[in-house]
Design brief:
By secondary structure, this protein is mainly β. It folds into two domains: about 90 residues, Ribonuclease Z/Hydroxyacylglutathione hydrolase-like (Metallo-beta-lactamase, Chain A, 4-Layer Sandwich), CATH 3.60.15; about 45 residues, no CATH class. It is built from three helices and eleven strands, in the order E-E-E-E-E-E-E-H-E-H-E-E-E-H. Strands 3-6-7-8-9 form a five-stranded mixed sheet.
Length: about 170
């Protein structure tokens, strides 16, 4: 397959550069905080915590990274409504804990993206999502890359998602 080229002239030299999708105009990918994270003492023996909820926009495609605690639901909906956003195409739950996935129900049409450990033996985890695999979301500008964590090391030992299974990390 031939890649179309364009010629650039710099002084007395002419260079050929490949034309790519990056040469075309695309709206920028933007990140916005929908809920600012806080951690403050509520009383001498307790803390009030609120996790960050992030909106990633790639053109008209909306991706929510974490959905916060259920108590943050009204704040998140208000922020999205003020931006004229009424649905998300994807929600990314970085953890199954409530502070990261407490409002998934607010986005019934969104495809949920979660780690293999958090959604064992589902259609989603039977996809090839191993190291080196890339899944485009909205465009070639937004995609997932597996970044294995160490959540399962303390509980079950190494797994296909654990960073300790890589050859360059020594498992005692």
């Amino acid at each position: 397959m031939r890649v179309p080229v364009r010629q650039k002239s710099l002084g007395d030299r002419t260079y050929k550069t490949p034309k790519t999708h990056l040469n075309k105009f695309r709206p920028p990918v933007t990140l916005s905080l929908l809920s600012t994270p806080t951690l403050r003492a509520a009383s001498p023996n307790s803390w009030d915590a609120k996790p960050a909820v992030v909106l990633l926009q790639d053109g008209a495609c909306n991706i929510l990274i974490n959905t916060g605690l259920p108590s943050q639901g009204p704040e998140i909906v208000e922020e999205l409504t003020s931006r004229r956003i009424f649905d998300a195409q994807f929600t990314v739950a970085t953890s199954p804990h409530l502070q990261f996935s407490g409002n998934l129900n607010l986005f019934p049409n969104a495809q949920i993206i979660a780690g293999r450990w958090h959604a064992r033996d589902t259609k989603m985890t039977r996809w090839n999502t191993g190291l080196g695999y890339r899944m485009d979301l909205c465009s070639q500008s937004t995609y997932t890359i597996p970044t294995p964590g160490i959540f399962s090391i303390k509980n079950l030992g190494p797994s296909e998602d654990a960073i300790t299974c890589r050859r360059w990390v020594r498992w005692p």
